[in-house]
């Protein structure tokens, strides 16, 4: 059962984080992996800007991604996004990553909204409920000082979504990552690597880093988030 699943996350989590439109629950592989893989495997564009996926089966997703990258890392938790307006249908994933209880920081990432739920209320509402839980003071939230958003610098849709929610651009890290598994299906940063590169055949990513800090949150960003939440009802 989901209630007995050990998220292995460094911060406390309720059974769900939700508003009146979406519900986020821990992504328990036995509950969601098969369904998510089946719904996403024929849409590789969902993973163009991401260093993982697609997967053909739930077991492949679990073995290649959920177990090594999520469950073994206490700084990461992945949520299943459920659309409450569609009878709690699985609409995608969202997560916290690069989290530190010592430094009171986390990042919203692993944003993958399934095609049927794109350009709806789902993405905005899912991001907003995680922003509130991260930045609101206990007991409603975690009271963190910094909330990050990182995206491929060419992923303009992801960056635009974050900025609509009140994030501001801090920096662009050039050649920040090597996408594993070669360049197939991955955009990278659009620039070639050296002919004699030690990881020939791969692509690199420039990463845009955006953030909302606690003082931004108190000085207007929370109101921006709430207005977006109401707009996407």
Q: How would you explain this protein's 3D organization?
A:
By secondary structure, the protein is α+β, with helices and mostly antiparallel strands. The protein has a single domain, classed as Aminopeptidase, CATH 3.40.630.30. The chain is 29% helix and 27% strand. It contains five helices and eight strands, in the order E-E-H-H-E-E-E-H-E-H-E-E-H. The chain has helices spanning 29-40, 58-71, 122-135, 156-164, 214-231; strands at 17-18, 22-26, 77-83, 89-100, 105-113, 146-152, 168-178, 204-213. The chain has an eight-stranded mixed beta sheet with strand order 1-2-3-4-5-6-8-7, sandwiched between helices. A hairpin with a 3-residue loop joins strand 1 and strand 2. Helix 1 (29-40) packs across helix 2 and helix 3 packs antiparallel against helix 5 (214-231). The radius of gyration is 17 Å and the shape is globular. The mean pLDDT is 92.
Q: Nutshell version of this structure?
A:
The chain has a single domain, classed as Aminopeptidase (3-Layer(aba) Sandwich), CATH 3.40.630. It is built from five helices and eight strands.
| Mean of residue pLDDT values | 92
Number of contiguous helices: 5
Principal-axes shape call? globular
Return Rg in Å. 17 Å
Number of structurally distinct domains? 1
In spatial order, strands of the major sheet run: 1-2-3-4-5-6-8-7
CATH hierarchy class name? Alpha Beta
- End-to-end Cα distance, whole Å, is 31 Å
Under CATH, the homologous superfamily reads Gcn5-related N-acetyltransferase (GNAT)
How would you spell out the order of helices and strands?
EEHHEEEHEHEEH
Strand count: 8
CATH architecture: 3-Layer(aba) Sandwich
Q: What percent of residues are in strands?
A: 25-35%
Helix/strand structural class:
alpha+beta
Largest sheet: 8 strands, mixed
Bin the helical content: 25-40%
